[in-house]
Amino acid sequence: MASTPTPQSPSEPRLTPGEVYRMLEAGNDRFVAGTPGHPNQGAEYRSSLTSGQHPKAVIFGCADSRLAAEIIFDVGLGDVFVIRTAGQVIDDAVLGSLEYSVDVLDIPLVVVLGHDSCGAVTAAVESYETGRMPPGFIRSLVERITPSVLAAQRKGITDVDGTVAEHVDQTCDRLVESSRHLYRAVRDGRTAVIGLTYSLADGETTLGRVLGDID
């Protein structure tokens, strides 16, 4: 595994989107190998964060209990700004949180994190196939994921895991299309948006859509 940056302190220079991605990639490598470092989790470091936060990445992921971002990427307190909804569905609160993370916290990398066997995506695929909508507010989740299901179908993708990967990519696109603030941040090179799909079985993440520069 190549040498990669570790989470910096507030006094250190701002990392580039690519440096942050490699930091997360290295943390995921440690997690997969079963050798996590559990950085930035001690009492002294916790106390150092009382004056403010300086996260390096914002992770917008599914609310699934098996998708704990800090564990998957082996980071600690203050390292990532996490937003979670079932099926990483976008709403106004999500967009507001993302704009805050980019414009106020000056975070250089936005990660959209999906996972295989996603229940919300499964419900959307089943609804498409059967023509039946689920009850209550689960219907709202399905309605918001359905455009990704349709995009996958147009590419000949019919399985849930393939649709999950397509939904991650589509979500990256929608974030930048929906938020002028995110669009400008990516356009100006301040931020990059990437899609990652997580494997529940082996813990690995697979890179999908990349909007911006992470080289």
Automatic annotation (TrEMBL):
One Gene Ontology MF term: carbonate dehydratase activity
GO biological process: carbon utilization
The keyword Metal-binding belongs to this UniProt entry's keyword annotation: yes
Origin: domain of life: Bacteria
Top-tier EC class: lyase
SMART domains assigned to the protein according to its UniProt record, in alphabetical order: Pro_CA
Cofactor field: Zn(2+)
Annotated SUPFAM superfamilies: beta-carbonic anhydrase, cab
Residues bound to Zn(2+): 62, 64, 115, 118
Function: Catalyzes the reversible hydration of carbon dioxide to form bicarbonate.
Family note: Belongs to the beta-class carbonic anhydrase family.
Keyword line: Lyase, Metal-binding, Zinc
Name of this chain's protein: carbonic anhydrase
EC code(s) of this entry: 4.2.1.1
Manner of cofactor binding, per the entry note: Binds 1 zinc ion per subunit.
Catalytic activity line of the entry: hydrogencarbonate + H(+) = CO2 + H2O
One Pfam family recorded for the sequence: Pro_CA
